[in-house]
Design goal:
Belongs to the nitroreductase family. 46% of the residues lie in helices and 13% in strands. The chain has 216 residues and is α+β, with helices and mostly antiparallel strands. The protein has a domain at 19-44 and 54-91 and 132-195: 3-Layer(aba) Sandwich (NADH Oxidase), CATH 3.40.109.10. The chain has a four-stranded antiparallel β-sheet with strand order 1-2-4-3, sandwiched between helices. The structure holds flavin mononucleotide (FMN). Residues 19-20, 22, 75, 161-165, 185, 196, 199 line the site of flavin mononucleotide.
Length: 216
């Protein structure tokens, strides 16, 4: 098997074996360094103009997870998993483009002049958008990073479940989340105590339209 085929096979098994797991071993733990590895690998996700407008609020403490429980519809995985990541979308994330592009210059991957022009133009463009549009862009990026968190966790032997079933206003209030950070989803990470159930998918023909054919 060629190297490319082997890595495609490994990737496919991570993707195919990830299922939303809702029952966790409450005694299992995940180290802070493993969580950091997962989050930093996930942060390699693409984002609009590389703004990386995702922020992570990590609950790695059973007492805090307990506090989160009623906010997340008492979903048991909140307390039984080893950690919960609240993925937040920073609708003003574009304001850090100067910092991001400076890092690229320091690494020698972007010329200084280009970085400065790109930063100035991008900040002006994102700044001219409505709050709703800024939020929408940051939410898309938040979805991409969330998927990568789940796959990076799975590749390291951890199970996950994404959760939209929570009270976003209460989450913001309870944990002092600034108004510019919009909750995307919660992701429980831990060791499954029971396998996630298999789920069905629509046939590809029903979700794919080749060259514009069949769209109604
Ligand atoms: C945005 C989003 C919100 C979700 N919210 C919840 C939730 O609150 N609780 C839950 O148990 N599962 C939740 N799920 C998991 C879905 O039910 C699950 O992904 C779907 O049934 C497909 O199953 P699979 O993840 O095992 O492939 C959510 C998934 C997504 C993407």
């Amino acid at each position: 098997m060629s190297e490319a085929t082997a890595s495609a096979t490994e990737y496919a098994s991570v993707v195919r074996e990830r299922h939303s797991v809702r029952q966790y071993d409450p005694n299992a733990t995940i180290s802070e360094s493993e969580l950091k590895e997962i989050l930093s690998e996930a942060s390699l996700a693409p984002s609009s103009s590389n703004t990386q407008s995702w922020r992570f609020l990590v609950f790695h403490d059973k007492e805090l997870q307990q506090k989160l429980l009623p906010i997340a519809n008492n979903q048991q995985q909140i307390v039984d998993s080893s950690a919960v990541v609240a993925v937040l979308a920073d609708r003003e994330g574009f304001k850090r483009l100067g910092q991001i592009n400076d890092i690229a210059v320091e690494k020698g991957i972007m010329p200084r002049e280009f970085a400065d022009q790109f930063t100035e133009r991008s900040i002006a463009m994102y700044g001219s958008l409505s709050k709703e549009k800024q939020t929408q862009i940051a939410l898309v990026d938040g979805g991409l990073v969330s998927m990568q968190i789940m796959l990076s966790a799975k590749a390291r032997g951890y199970d996950t479940v994404p959760m939209g079933g929570f009270d976003a206003a209460r989450l913001v209030e309870e944990f002092g989340i600034p108004e510019t950070l919009v909750p995307v989803m919660l992701i429980a990470v831990g060791k499954g105590a029971a396998p996630g159930r298999a789920t069905a998918r629509l046939p590809l023909e029903e979700i794919t339209f080749w060259n514009g054919q069949g769209l109604k």
